[in-house]
Amino acid sequence: MKLLVTGGAGYVGSVVSALLLEAGHEVVVLDDVSTGHEDSVPEGARLVRGTLRDTAQDVMAGAGFEAVLHFAAKSLVGESVEKPGLYWDKNLGESLALLDAMRVAGVPRIVFSSTAAVYGEPESTPILETDPTRPTNPYGASKLAIDTALAEYARLHGIGGVSLRYFNVAGAYGRLGERHTVETHLIPNVLKIAQGDGEAVKMFGDDYPTPDGTCIRDYIHVTDLGRAHLLALDACAPGTHRIFNLGSGTGNSVKEVVDVCREVTGREIPAEVAPRRPGDPAVLVASSDKIQAELGWKPERDLRTMIDDAWTFLRSR
Ligand code: UDP
After folding, report:
1. What is the mean pLDDT of residues 77-100?
2. Best of 137, 254, 307 to mutate for ligand 1, by most ligand atoms within 8 A of CB?
3. 208 CA → ligand 1 middle, Å
4. Which among 49, 194, 225, 286 could bridge 267 via Cys, Cβ 3.0 to 4.6 Å?
């Protein structure tokens, strides 16, 4: 298929682009390279630089794209609380521009990169797709609004859409890994300490109602996550919008992650308890039953493999 990948210079978008190319698809990446990296765009994909608002319509006009995979977004929870307008404008506003460009050009399918942040503080665990969506920050709220728009474009314009709600993505796919300028995620932060970049890991809170007192998250390998996008692409059916959680179905605590990082790196990795990070729920674990049952997807790589691959990636740079 001829595919447009928005945000293909970012972490997940670049890995998915690589997997799509390996599967024999033609890939054009549309990215403004504001937070991504030009050299993350896999060889074989053509990069068009620009925002969705300014360029989506021109890029798609008469180009014969068969689907869009939409990753381009702002994705820092803390920044979204400080600058909500930026998140509504970039995430929702630019996605609306993209959807309308698809409508005009007659592009029939979209796979959308969504997030567990749409659920907010869960009432029960593991989280099901039918659970209430009550985002606690503008990042999650803007992503949820895109789902609403997607459902309408499916119902009224016949587009086929699949939203994948990611839990905690980690690991690397060869030379493609996490390269955020502002790194907030646990695993890359712990591995930085392992590399000697910083004194000690800060574990945000050890008085949560969990077995060891630290927060539990559902970590998923970026390669497993990427594979789900190829299945979702095949599952896009005209006039329907489907939603799937994407996690491993099991949780690991912050302390467990730090311990596995110590085992994998063979380094001591000093860690200290720091105050809770505002807005962190104690436990976020996805039910992945729906995607397993309906798309036949299963996670294949465990936490150790994620950390191993992230560590290899970090040391190669
Ligand atoms: N965390 C931590 N220290 C860090 C970064 C994260 O203790 O330097 C904790 C964070 O409070 C959360 C978990 O690790 O409980 C995962 O955080 P991350 O930012 O990786 O993902 P999130 O679950 O917020 O999307």
Report:
1. 96
2. 254
3. 13
4. 194
Q: Could you tell me the pLDDT band of residue 246, with boundaries at 50, 70 and 90?
A: very high
CA 112 and chain centroid, separation: 10
Closest CA to 272 of 189, 202, 212, 214: 202
Task: Give the whole-angstrom CA distance, residue 253 versus residue 196.
Answer: 23
pLDDT tens for each residue of 146-158: 999 999 999 999 9
**What confidence tier does 183 reach under pLDDT thresholds 50, 70, 90?**
confident
In what helix (H) or strand (E) does residue 97 lie, and over which residues does it extend? helix 94-105
> Is there an atom of ligand 1 within 6 Å of 298 CB?
no
> What is the pLDDT averaged over residues 108-127?
96
Q: Are 94 and 72 in contact (CB under 8 A)?
A: yes
Pairwise CA distance, residues 217 & 230, whole Å: 25
End-to-end CA distance of the chain: 33
Query: How remote is the CA of residue 71 from the centroid of ligand 1, in Å?
Result: 21
**Tell me, what DSSP letter sits at residue 289?**
H
Residues 6+ apart with CB under 8 A from 187: 170, 219, 257, 261, 306, 307, 310
pLDDT number for residue 180: 81
Strand partners, 241: 161
The answer to whether the beta carbons of residues 68 and 3 sit under 8 Å apart is yes
Task: Output the DSSP codes for 44-56.
Answer: TPEEEES-HHHHH
Q: Give the Å distance between the CA of 69 and the centre of ligand 1.
A: 27
Alpha carbon nearest to ligand 1 atom 7, residue? 203
Q: Token pair 């491993």 is at which residue?
A: 248
Catalytic residues: 139
Q: CB of 257 within 8 A of CB of 186?
A: yes
Determine which residue's CA is closest to atom 1 belonging to ligand 1.
Answer: 186
What's the pLDDT tens digit per position in 18-50?
999 999 999 999 999 999 999 999 999 999 999
